Amino acid sequence: MIVVLAGGVGAARFLQGVTQVVPQEEIVVIANTGDDSQFYGLHVSPDIDIVMYTLAGLVDEKQGWGVRNDTYHTMQRLSALGHENWFQLGDQDLATHIHRTQLLHQGETLSAITEGLRQHMGIGPRILPMSDDSVETHIQTPAGLIHFEEYFVKHRFNVEVQGVEFVGSKTARPAPGVIDAIKQAEAILIAPSNPIVSIGTILAVPGIHDALHEASGMVVAVSPLVGGAPIKGPADRLMRALHMEATAVGVTRCYRDFLDVMVIDQQDAHLAEQVEDLGIPCVVTDTIMRDQQAKTALARTVLEAAGLRY
Amino acid sequence: MIVVLAGGVGAARFLQGVTQVVPQEEIVVIANTGDDSQFYGLHVSPDIDIVMYTLAGLVDEKQGWGVRNDTYHTMQRLSALGHENWFQLGDQDLATHIHRTQLLHQGETLSAITEGLRQHMGIGPRILPMSDDSVETHIQTPAGLIHFEEYFVKHRFNVEVQGVEFVGSKTARPAPGVIDAIKQAEAILIAPSNPIVSIGTILAVPGIHDALHEASGMVVAVSPLVGGAPIKGPADRLMRALHMEATAVGVTRCYRDFLDVMVIDQQDAHLAEQVEDLGIPCVVTDTIMRDQQAKTALARTVLEAAGLRY
């Protein structure tokens, strides 16, 4: 069994490769839920949805999230009724949030709901939220603490970051199956996701960091930073704001406690030595997932780095 | 000020006439909320919405409810996720329910939410829910008690009716403004709505029946039954099930405690004498609201019957 720690778009694309190499039923995704938020009274789990829609073949590949060819009729009416509309939810996408919210109100856990959605969508890999408890990533800005999605989507990360807080993380428990999956995995792959607000959030759930440290399977991470910048999103800005080096070396430092191999892009080949100086073996490859072939090749390289061959 | 007691489609069409005759700001609609229900965890107020969409010019005139040219993308996905789909909610329509549900969860009252929706939709007449408390119309069937919408929409009223219950009505209070509006009205018009499950539900809210009885304005009702059958819906079936005569005479009996004038259709002219035998003056006219002209003419006749001239 292979565990993949996952954020949003980068992770979903990486999983499109992994699912071509590893039998689907042997894959367990542990997904960040720190971006979860209420919009219009509905519980939205952005990273879980990106992963699900991608694995179900429903995703809007161009934007990386949402449902392909979705319409926005409900959103337009919500705007007409005076709602803010910076977080756009498509009509098909809304069904997921309405479904999830209804079941949460009925007392079901996010894990159970996610498992039900997975089955309805015919998705092979299991998808575990990192926690069934609320952990909300907030960004400290000069204007105060704001939810990550407000920073990310509303302000398009053009706001000075003074800190990051995972509200609720101290008392959150890993969702059922998370710790066992990490313990039993032949390999734990850390997707090329934001090390602060995607993977960092998962690591902030008490018990997960330690389980990775003690895991018998190899832990292999893919750097989301290539040439000092992420393919998408604010990873570099957040790292710099937190006085980290915004390179593959900085990402390695985030994971060094439990990391067995670091995979970096060929454009960053000159950083391999610095990664290895941290005591972490480094694999240099093409990490740009421009098409399915590239995704599959990356997955194969990462699995090989974990000592597995398919 | 003119008060209109309103159910769904028949009332909305009647209001399309009243609003052509009476200045909009002088109209207060008291709407049945006994059909309100949760669908997919969202609070739906069918009669309020029919009235609002109609007065806002958004309604699907052909079906009488919902938003014109609406799409059903969210519904299709909800079905794919395993939900029952006998209560179809369009994508634009959903915005109303999402908005209402969010504000109800935040502690706002149905009255306040309805007033906000009215303003956003640019609707002239005030619309008051009969109550901010939950009153749910249930139908007693051989298979047990079912919600009115299940009887009406899911079973298309092809179920034996043994009784009608207004669950919650005993402790419900009239919404703010309801009793005052009835007391202050120059006339109270009872729309051609179902006398059992639309108007009957309103009358079941403690205080409303007595306020009508004591009202200084004339109370004028329009029979929803023409030739012994309603234009739409199960009024005749419900009346027969409750051992009432399913004619304009039977409708008159429902309201005779407080009714000043009964308006019946010309097809039922032969019933006028029986209505008057109940002590209620009867006006015979064309009540079939086939077009705007007919709606306006009916409204004018009803207002004249109430002693008002515009």
TrEMBL record, chains A, B:
This is LPPG domain protein containing protein. Keywords: Magnesium, Transferase. It comes from the Bacteria. The keyword Transferase applies. The keyword Magnesium applies. It comes from Ktedonobacter racemifer DSM 44963. One of its GO terms (molecular function) is magnesium ion binding. PANTHER family: 2-PHOSPHO-L-LACTATE TRANSFERASE. NCBIfam families: F420_cofD.
